[in-house]
Amino acid sequence: xDQLTIGKVARKAGxxxxxxxxxxxxxxxxxxxxxxxxxxxxxxDTVELLQFLQRAQAFGMTLRQIRELMQLTNQGGxxxxxxxxxARHHLRExxxxxxxxxxxxxxxxxLLRKCSARRTNQACPLIEGTVAS
Length: 133
Fold this sequence. Notes:
Helix content is 64%, strand content 7%.
């Protein structure tokens, strides 16, 4: 199997080399091999692993959750039940965030209405942050 330098892996995965080092340092990415000159070298499948990591992050998964998913993959077999549990848990977290954002949106709408209705000599409701009427 071909080995790639960190620069080549970074280009293929669309990442910075510092991100790859970060993932390796936090044990999300398996440790690289080293050439006699000290350069890091990676297997070709590292690119796919990094692309998976980026997709999981795009879904809003934490590095802890991603690490757990990767550990399940390394255990072999179809750990589908556990993966589904993790996905369901993450979906609940996403729904909670959506509810919090919807609440924030409603509060901002109220503040903007108050701001539009204020007299010029009154303090701005957006600055005061008072929602109650």
